[in-house]
Amino acid sequence: MYRMILSLLLALLLLPQLVLAAPANSNKALSSTPAVQIPVFKSERALAKVQGLSKLEITNVRYALHKDAVTGEVTLRMVIDATGPIKGTAVLNDLPVPRLEVAVGGASLGKLGSQQKLDGKIASQVKLMQVNGSSKLVIDLENMIDETDYRIFALPRDIKADKPYRLVVDIKQPAPPIVYNFTAGLKGKVIALDPGHGGSDPGAIGPGGSQEKTVTLAVAKRLQTLLEKAGAKVVMTRQGDRDVYGASATAVDELKARTTVAAKNKADVFISLHADAFTKPEVGGTSTFYYRKSMYDGLLAKNIQTNIIEAGKLSDRRVNSANFYVVKRSVMPAALVEMAFITNPDEEKLLNSPQFQQKMAQGIYQGLDNFFVEASRNGGGR
């Protein structure tokens, strides 16, 4: 009886060790099973041998041109290969040259070069750069494009086709730029002046009740006088306080009517006059906007901005690229001038001052004269 009790106690003491030993034997059995291999594609293999797939990198940037058989539309397709899923965001920039900048978050460039030549029809080159652990591709375009002229999307890894993770950028070929040939001087030039707003649209209103449509017309008339004395023909989109298109017009109808006036009169340039506005009354200054549809749009804006700042002595808010309808849809070089902030009490008073109005007109006049001198160096004989 004593021996039976002793044997039972001994078995109970050894039981935990037997239980603990079981998982160890199981692990040994599992470790003998071959590990599952993750597929590595041709474009990734060299990199995978050195670093594995844990580091997200761009491994290749390639492109091809595609022409639609029906429409004849040409598209540049740029494909960015990577070792893992990537996402990109794109933004258009017009300074110093038209560019599409594509940011690829969290992916490094690996051993790729700093730039690559492209087709030269839609884009001339792509520059690759590393920015805080992410990558950025700057695509230099031949001409400015719209937001609707490009798209960017990601594609997953395709095991059967042996294709890696990809980011695709499609860029449509824009309409060819208009070629102009200018001579120096204002004599004989046709200048379209567009006093912003008018009629049912007062534009921005200052703290003292001044309306944008009133001050823009006042400056336009002074500028008209200066230009006509120099021998230019001036076409005004409106001579008084009225809508250009007419009653019940949509915003697009009204803007289109202004560019149509300039086109029908075969204007050499189009100048739209405005007064800026902002929620903070202390903000002020002068700026000029353009849309790059020819080699002359930016040149026109630069010359006007330089001279109007010299004349008005307000804060220089620089030359800026923008998609404003009248500068984008006008068929000739165009600039939109924001002379001052009507919401700034001091600048509102200036905009109502005949002396300041004359300074604005004189600055734009001089800017136009300088523009034709510079433009003639790139053309002539018109």
Low-confidence stretches: 12-53
How would the global form be characterised? Answer: elongated
Strand order of the largest sheet: 11-10-12-15-13-14
What percentage of amino acids are in beta strands? 25-35%
Number of strands: 15
Classify the oligomer. Answer: single chain
Which superfamily, in CATH terms, is the homologous superfamily of the largest domain? Zn-dependent exopeptidases
Examine the secondary-structure arrangement and name the CATH architecture of the largest domain. 3-Layer(aba) Sandwich
Highest CATH level, the class of the largest domain? Alpha Beta
| Annotation field: number of helices | 8
End-to-end gap = 127 Å
Q: Outline the biggest β-sheet.
A: 6 strands, mixed
Order of helices and strands: HHEEEEEEEEEEHEHEEHEHEHH
Give the total of domains.
Answer: 2
CATH topology of the largest domain: the name is: Aminopeptidase
Percent helix: 25-40%
Q: What is the average per-residue confidence, as pLDDT, rounded to a whole number? A: 85
Q: What is the structural class?
A: alpha/beta
Please tell me about this protein's structure.
The chain contains eight helices and 15 strands. The chain is of the alpha/beta class and about 375 residues long. The chain has two domains: about 130 residues, Sandwich (Immunoglobulin-like); about 190 residues, Zn-dependent exopeptidases (Aminopeptidase, 3-Layer(aba) Sandwich), CATH 3.40.630.40. Helix 3 crosses helix 8 and helix 5 runs antiparallel to helix 8. The longest helix has 30 residues. The radius of gyration is 33 Å and the shape is elongated. The termini are far apart. About 35% of the residues are buried.
